[in-house]
């Protein structure tokens, strides 16, 4: 019998002896069951959904494939949205630059027209002054030669005719310059109206905010499967599983 006891003792490993000692302690069995129950409850909070669903490994793998496909689809949709936004932004910048260029061109042409108009107005004003002076000089010469038949009087009357012709010429030039100034004035107004009618494009809608990442990383399904198998074994230990 002693040999038999020694053989039985030798067959027990360190883990088995520790387990036996723990089980032999007062209340050890109840404490072990409580510990295993707490471990089970802690794991059940995390993968209770998978256990409640009662999915098999094939069903879980199929669900993973569907989830990966949906994730790829979401990423493709987001990529398409980003590309569409970039294209809209590029078009907006192009349209804004084109509108600014059109406005700048119209304003530059308006300023040029206004400058030409002002120059022609000044020239016409000077030509009219000359015409008035020549007209006055011609009137003075005629007045001095009136009632006289001497050669000097004839010379004065000839000079008065030339002065009047010069005055008439200056008036014609002034009228021509005034008409050109009127054309440039109309051109300036038209260019300013065109610049005012240019419409800058509206700012495209703001891009969607970046999605806030989850506070905790998602748990991998393969871990859930491992835990599911472990919990199933523990249920059997409790006498609840099959």
What order do the SSEs take from the amino end to the carboxyl end, as H and E? HHHHHH
Tell me the strand percentage band.
under 5%
Radius of gyration: 53 Å
Shape: rod-shaped
Q: Identify the CATH architecture of the domain at 65-202.
A: Orthogonal Bundle
The tally of helices reads 6
CATH class bucket of the domain at 65-202: Mainly Alpha
Low-pLDDT stretches: 1-12, 17-23, 208-214, 217-225
**Count of DSSP strands:** 0
Describe the structure.
The chain is mostly helical and 242 residues long. It has a domain at 65-202: Helix Hairpins (Orthogonal Bundle). The chain is 83% helix and 0% strand. The protein has helices spanning 2-11, 14-24, 28-53, 57-145, 151-197, 221-238. Helix 3 (28-53) packs across helix 6 and helix 4 (57-145) packs antiparallel against helix 5 (151-197). The longest helix is centred in the middle third of the chain and has 89 residues, at 57-145. It is rod-shaped and about 150 Å long. The model is unreliable at 1-12, 17-23, 208-214 and 217-225 (pLDDT under 50).
